[in-house]
Amino acid sequence: MKVAFRCAMALLIAVLATGCSSFKHKKQMNSFNDAYTTGDFDRALLAVSFKTAEGKAVDSEAHLLDLLHQGELYRMAGRYQEAADTYDLAEEGMKYLDTESLLEQSAEGFMAVMVNDSERDYEALMSEAILVNTYKALSFLAVANNEYARIEFKRADDRTRRSVEFFGKEIAEQREALEEEAQNQQSNAALVSDSLSNNQLQDAVEKNYGASQQWSVLSEFMVPASTYMNGLYSLANASSNSDFEQAASSLKRVAAMKDDSLVLQKDAELAMALASGEQSVTDLGPQVWVVYENGLGPVLEESRFDVPLLLFHGNQQAPAYFGIALPKYSDRAFIPGGLSVSSRTGEVVETERISDMGSVIRTEMKARFPGVLARAVSSAVIKAIIQNEASEQFGVWGQLGAAALTIATTQADLRGWQALPNHWQAARIDRPEDGQLLLSDAAGNALGTLAIPEQPFTLVYVKRPTTTSPASVVVLDLQGGNPAFVEQLPKPAQLTAAP
Description:
Layout: H1 2-36, H2 41-47, H3 64-76, H4 80-92, H5 109-114, H6 126-142, H7 146-182, H8 188-196, H9 199-209, H10 224-236, H11 241-257, H12 262-276, H13 281-284, E1 287-294, E2 299-313, E3 316-330, E4 340-342, E5 348-350, E6 352-356, H14 357-409, E7 423-430, E8 436-440, E9 446-451, E10 457-464, E11 471-477, E12 485-489, H15 492-497
Parallel strand pairs: 1-10
Antiparallel strand pairs: 1-7, 2-3, 4-5, 4-8, 6-7, 8-9, 10-11, 11-12
C-alpha cells in the first residue's frame, strides 16, 4: 500500500508541475509570436526574458530556449554584441551535444519517465546548435571581427561533420543501457525492450504517426544554409588554391543536395574555377550575395494514440493498450515568392529556394526518433504498472485516480526555437558601379534601396517572418574588414500604410 500511495503522490505532484509548465510555455510562446510576427522585437524580447538573482550566474541549461530566442532578436535588431554574448550563453547550455553521454543525463530521466519529456531542461537539436554558430559568425562579421567569425563558421562546420557520429553514439548508448537493465527479466526495462520490439507496437506507431523512413528528409545531415554561408565565407577569405578548394567542397555539397538550383550550381562552379586558376579574383569583380530567410519555421504538435504494451500478468506477458504522446513537426506559413534584386542599369536577379528548415529538422528527428519513442514507451510502462498497483491496493477508485493522473501527464514535449525560418533563398549579382541595389518583393513592391560598399565580397542577409513584419536587412563585408549596417525594410511607416 505504501508503494502505491507514494506512486500516486508522485504522480499528483508531477501532474501539477507539468500542467503549470506546459501552460506557462504555451502562454509565453503565444506572446512571443504575437510580437515577433509583427516585427515588434522589443515586445517579443520581453516575452522571453527572465530574471537572475544579483551575483548569480545565468543558468544556461534551464533558460536555453529563452536564450536562443533572445539571441536572434538581438541579431535582427542590429544589437550584435548582445547577440553574440547571448548565443555564447546558449552554447554553454548545449554542452551536452559535445561532452555529455546519455548516462550522464540520467538525473532528469526520472521526471521524463514519470511525467513526460517537457519536464527535462530543453535540449537543443544539433541543427539548432549549428545555426547558433552561424548566427554568431554573422554577428561577428557585422562588427568587423573577422577572427571570431572564422572561429564560429569553423565550429558550425565541425558540428555538421560530427553530427552523424553523435546521433549514432546517442542511439547506441541508449540501446546499451536498455539492454543492460533488461537482463533482469522482471525489470521495467525488460518490459520496455519487449514492447519496443513488438510488431504490434511498431504497426500502431506507423499507422497513427507515420513511418520515419517515409519522412521527407535530406540524403545526409547538414543545415544547407549554414554550409552554404560557410562556403561563401571561405571563398571570400581564401588566400590560396587549397582555400578555394575548401570553399568549393562546401558549395558543391550544398549544390548536390538541391541539383535544380542554378544559384547553387553557379556558386560551386565559381569556387572550382577559382581553385583551378581558370578564374582570378581580380577579373571577377565585386560580388554581392543575397541570402533570404523567409517565413516561420516548423513547430511541434502532439500526436496522441494507444499502443499495445507487453506487461506481466502473473508470470506471463500479455498485451494491454495504453496511451503515448509523440511530438510531430508541422510547417508554418511563409511569404509567397522570393526577392527581386535590381540595379539602375537594368540587371535583375531573383532569389531562389536553396534549403528549407522542415527537411533539416525531420532529418535529425528521424535519427533521434528511436530515443523519443523509447522514452514515451518507458513512461507508459511505468504508469501502466502504477495503475495496476493502484487497482490492486485501492480497487476501482484507485484505478480511476491513477488513470486520470496518467492521462494528464501523458504529453509530448512541444518546445522548440520558434525564431527560425520556413526556408532560405539566395541570389548573386555583380555590384553595380553606383553601389545601389533595389530590393522588391514577389508582388513587385519595392522594399527599399541598399547602398553596397566598395568591397570585393558582400553578403546582404535578409530575414522576414511575415508580410506584416518588416524585413531585417544587414549588409555585411564577407571579409570582415568593415562594420555592417542594418535596416528594417520597408520602413515602419511604409508597412503601416500598405493596403
